[in-house]
Amino acid sequence: MNPKTRLRRWRINLFIFLSVLGPGIISANVDNDAGGIYTYSVAGARFGYSLLWSLIPITIALVVVQEMVARMGVVTGKGLADLIREEYGFRMTFILMIILLLANLGTTISEFAGLASGMSVFGISRFIAVPLGAALVWLLVVKGTYRVVEKVFLLACFFYVSYLISGFMAQPDWEGAAVATVKPSLQFDTGYLYMIIGLVGTTITPWMQFYLQSAVVEKGIKLNNYVQSRWDVIIGCIITDVVAFFIIIACAATIYESGPRQIQEAADAALALEPLAGSAAAALFAFGLCNASLFAACILPLATAYCVCEGLGVESGINKRPHEAPTFYALYTGLIVLGGLAVLILKESMQVPIILLSQVANGILLPFVLIFMLRLCNREDLMGNYRNTRTFNIIAWSTCVAMIVLTLLLLISTFLPKYMP
C-alpha cells in the first residue's frame, strides 16, 4: 500500500471515528459525577494512595462491561431495557425498573447536592444554584436535539481536565503513587471494604449501561462502524479512571498527608486543598465538581427515562418532542424536580449519607444487571458471531462475583465484628 493510499484510509477512519464518537466517552465520564468525586476524595483523604491499585481492575472491568452494551446496541438496534423486556418478560423488567428508578432518584439528589456544594465554594447559595442548574439541564434536553445535546455533553467532558491540573498542583509523591497503583493492598476493615465497594459502584454503575446502549441506538451506529464504537468506549473508560486517579492523589497528597480527616461533602475537599495546594487548585477542584454535577444531572434522569420507557415499551428519545414521548419527558422532568427540591428542603447533613450510600447501592445492584447483560450477550440467536468471547466472559463474571463477595464481606465485618481478625 503506497503512502497516499495509507493516508487516505487513515483520514477516512478518523472521520468515521469522529462521527461515531460520543456515547462511549460521555457514558464513561459521567461516572465521575458528584457522588464519584466525593467517593474518590474520601478515598484519598482517608486512605492516601493505598486504594489506587483498585483503579486498574476497575478500568479493565469497565471497558468490558461498557463494550458489551455498546456491542449489543450496535448489533440488535435495541436498548438494554427493551431487550430484557422482550427476552425475560414484563414482570421481571418492571421490578428491575422500579429498583433502578429509586436508586437513580437517590443519585440524582446527590448530583444537585454536589452542584450546591461546589457553588458554595464561590459564595453562591444553593437556593440560587440548584433552581438555575435544574432549569438549565431541563431546557437543554427538552428543547435540544440529540446532536446538540451530545456536543454539549462532549464539551462538559473536556472540563474534567481541571482535576488533572489540581492533581499536579498538589505536588503528590509520584513514586509512592506509582507503587500503590501496581502493588495491591487489601485491609479487612469495614471502612476500607466500604470504600472499595463505593469505588466500584461509582465507576461501574447499572444505569450507565442502559444509557450507553440507548445512546448508541439513538445515534444510529451501524454494525460496519462497530470497531470505531468500541474505541469510543475504550478511550472513554481510560479517561474516566485517569480523572479518578488524579482526584485521589490530590486529596492523598494534601488532606491525608496533613492528617486523615473526615470529608462531610465534596466541596470540603476543595476547601481543604486551598491552604495546602493554593487557591487556584481549590477553585479548579470546585469548578470540576460543578461541571460534573450539572453533567450528571442531565444524563442520570435521561438514562432513567430511557430505561423505564424501554422497559414499559413506550416511546422515548431526545429527538422526539414532548407530545410524541410524554412518559419519557415526564420521567425526566420529575426526577429533576424531585432531586432539586430534596436538596433545597433537606438539611445539608442529611444529604451526605445519600451521596455515598447511592454509590454503594449501585455496587450492590450491579451484579443483577450484569447477569442480564451476560445472558443476553451470549445468545447466539440474538448476537450471532458477535457473542462474548471467553476472555470477556471470564472478566465480566469475575466482576460480578467480586462485587457479591465484597458486599458479603462488608456485611459480615459490619454486623459480626467480634468474629473478624
Task: Outline the fold blueprint.
Blueprint: H1 3-20, H2 23-29, H3 34-47, H4 55-76, H5 80-88, H6 90-121, H7 126-143, H8 146-158, H9 161-169, H10 174-182, H11 190-203, H12 206-219, H13 226-256, H14 266-277, H15 279-312, H16 326-345, H17 348-377, H18 380-383, H19 390-415
What labels would you give this structure?
421 residues; mainly alpha; globular
In short:
With 421 residues, the chain is mainly alpha-helical. It has helices spanning 3-20, 23-29, 34-47, 55-76, 80-88, 90-121, 126-143, 146-158, 161-169, 174-182, 190-203, 206-219, 226-256, 266-277, 279-312, 326-345, 348-377, 380-383, 390-415.
Secondary-structure element order, as H and E? HHHHHHHHHHHHHHHHHHH
Separate helix tally:
19
Low-confidence stretches: none
Strand content: under 5%
The percent range for helix content is over 70%
What does the largest sheet look like? none
Shape annotation: globular
Q: Residue-averaged pLDDT, rounded?
A: 79
Query: Pairing-aware structural class of the strands and helices?
Result: mainly alpha
**Any idea what the radius of gyration is?**
21 Å
Terminal Cα span: 64 Å
Number of extended strands: 0
Question: Can you characterise this structure?
Answer:
With 421 residues, the protein is an all-alpha fold. Helix content is 80%, strand content 0%. The chain has helices spanning 3-20, 23-29, 34-47, 55-76, 80-88, 90-121, 126-143, 146-158, 161-169, 174-182, 190-203, 206-219, 226-256, 266-277, 279-312, 326-345, 348-377, 380-383, 390-415. α5 (80-88) packs parallel to α15 (279-312), α12 packs across α15 and α13 crosses α14 (266-277). The longest helix has 34 residues, at 279-312. It is globular. The chain starts with a helix and ends in a 6-residue tail after the last helix. The mean pLDDT is 79.
